[in-house]
Design goal:
single chain, alpha/beta, Rossmann fold, SH3 type barrels, six-stranded antiparallel beta barrel, 17 strands
Length: 367
């Protein structure tokens, strides 16, 4: 066994996981590759050609890298586990009138759990993935920091990782820029990998059409919710819609009606199948509650502690004060009004580039 230890590397067959396996091997770790099949594209019913981490081509590419570099590679079928947890939650959240973030849920409850379980079974002390993020330590606690390449940074979807996970995880790409990763893989002789395109869709919605996915997944849903009412912020009926699960907070396009001025989804009321529309200014909020909190950098939040709070993946973040509230939730008071706060999405708290922690948005308000 290597002096550095044995590491289980999650390999999707893409450029980033390929580079990760190569780097861990070069650093002197004994590498074991694993590819997790989370989803069968044939079940999606979408129009897009099968691509990405679950396709046969990607699995074969991951195995080819392992064979070329001389380490073991295993394929693990976790479709049932993934479907029961991630996809069921995805559907349930939309039916509850919220906007889920399946990548966060998958990372926290499926991928890391599956990786650590297999790592233990294979006597691997560590796991490594191709995420663009860094891990640092302060006062005995490990926490995630943003990647050097801010355009590729994935810290937002990793807020749910616990200390147990972080203590055993490596992110070798966190200190690199994406072009450097491509060059590294190209120079190593994997020219075809260095030119691979990237996929940004949800893996089980490859055509990026979640509404069609919901209709296929729950065929009776559309009949139950069709014909609900659009109302304005005064409660006045201004039209009918296709059903509240097919709309998200902040949505402007695809409303199916013209209102004479830009209108946005500002609230969803599943109990009455009502979608509230408002002007851009009516989307503004200066506070929200966050539940299911996981803290990384600190073991507790000081009342009034300042942070940069990010409410979606591509959000630049807003300066805010964090408050401890009942039930272990955190109240967030924004120093400037923000728009499009969507229950069900993740709120992530940063101190400079360091991830303090995160949670799920439960609700929002405007004082």
């Amino acid at each position: 066994m290597s002096k550095k230890g044995r590491v289980l590397v999650a390999m999707s067959g893409g450029i980033d996981s390929t580079a990760t396996a190569m780097m861990m091997h070069e650093e002197g770790y004994e590498v074991v590759g694993i590819t997790m099949k989370t989803w069968d594209y044939a079940q999606s019913g979408g129009s897009k050609k099968e691509t990405g981490c679950c396709s046969l081509d990607s699995i074969n590419d991951a195995r080819a890298v392992a064979v070329h570099m001389g380490f073991h590679h295993f394929i693990v079928d976790i479709r049932e586990e993934f479907g029961d947890y991630v996809i069921d939650n995805f559907v349930d959240e939309y039916i509850a009138g919220r906007t889920p973030n399946p990548c966060v849920l998958c990372n926290t409850h499926i991928k890391w759990s599956s990786l650590l379980k297999r790592a233990d079974a294979m006597d691997c002390e560590f796991i490594a993935t191709g995420h663009y993020a860094r891990i640092n330590e302060l006062n005995g606690r490990r926490f995630i920091s943003k990647a050097v390449d801010l355009k590729k940074d994935q810290s937002y979807v990793l807020w749910g990782l616990t200390q147990e996970c972080l203590n055993r995880t490596h992110f070798p790409l966190g200190g690199m820029l994406k072009p450097e990763v491509r060059e590294y893989v190209f120079d190593a002789g994997f020219e075809e990998f260095s030119k691979k395109a990237e996929s940004y869709e949800i893996c089980f919605v490859p055509d990026n059409d979640y509404r069609s996915f919901l209709r296929r997944r729950v065929p009776e849903l559309e009949q139950k919710v069709r014909g609900g009412q659009f109302v304005n912020t005064k409660g006045e009926v201004i039209g009918t819609h296709e059903g509240y699960p097919f709309y998200t907070i902040g949505q402007r396009k695809g409303l199916g009606m013209a209102f004479g001025e830009p209108m946005f989804v500002s609230k969803i009321i599943p109990e009455s199948n009502t979608v509230v529309l408002g002007k851009i200014g009516e989307l503004l909020r200066n506070g929200m509650s966050v539940g299911k909190v996981n803290l990384q950098k600190y073991g507790a939040i000081n009342d009034g502690q300042e942070a940069i709070t990010q409410i979606r993946y591509n959000d630049g973040g807003t300066v805010s004060a964090l408050r401890n509230t009942e039930g272990g939730q955190i109240g967030v008071e924004f120093f400037a009004n923000v728009k499009g706060v969507a229950p069900g999405q993740s709120a992530v708290f940063y101190e400079n580039d360091d991830l303090i922690g995160g949670g799920i948005i439960m609700g929002s308000y405007l004082n």
